[in-house]
Specification:
about 25% strand, 2 helices, alpha+beta, flat, 2 domains
Length: about 100
């Protein structure tokens, strides 16, 4: 298992799907003991494997996209890019701000 946390968001990575499913079932119950709950709209299990890159989904976490790719030698690696959704929203906000500031 690999665990990545930032403030109140986190990602858990598992080698086996069964482990991920068991963890997801127990996590909600465990958090309830502390008066916490999972955000259902943000909680999901995705398939992310270097062995079947075509079947992988792109994962968004904290404004970055994570996807499998290859390095210059052809070896698989995880690529981190700026999230397309966040980038477009920022450009739209910036354009609107420029229009507002341009008018006297």
């Amino acid at each position: 298992m690999k665990f990545v946390r930032y403030a109140d968001d986190f990602v858990c990575a598992f080698q086996y799907q069964g482990d991920a499913e068991r963890f997801c079932k127990v996590l909600g119950k465990r958090l309830e003991k502390f008066g916490l709950s999972l955000a259902e709209e943000k909680t999901r299990i995705i398939y992310f494997s270097r062995f079947q890159m075509r079947d992988n989904k792109i994962s968004d976490f904290l404004g970055s996209e994570y996807r499998w790719g290859n390095d210059r030698r052809g070896k698989p690696l995880v690529k981190r890019l700026t999230s397309r959704r966040k980038y477009r929203a920022s450009l739209k906000n910036f354009s609107e701000w420029c229009k507002e500031e341009q008018t006297p």
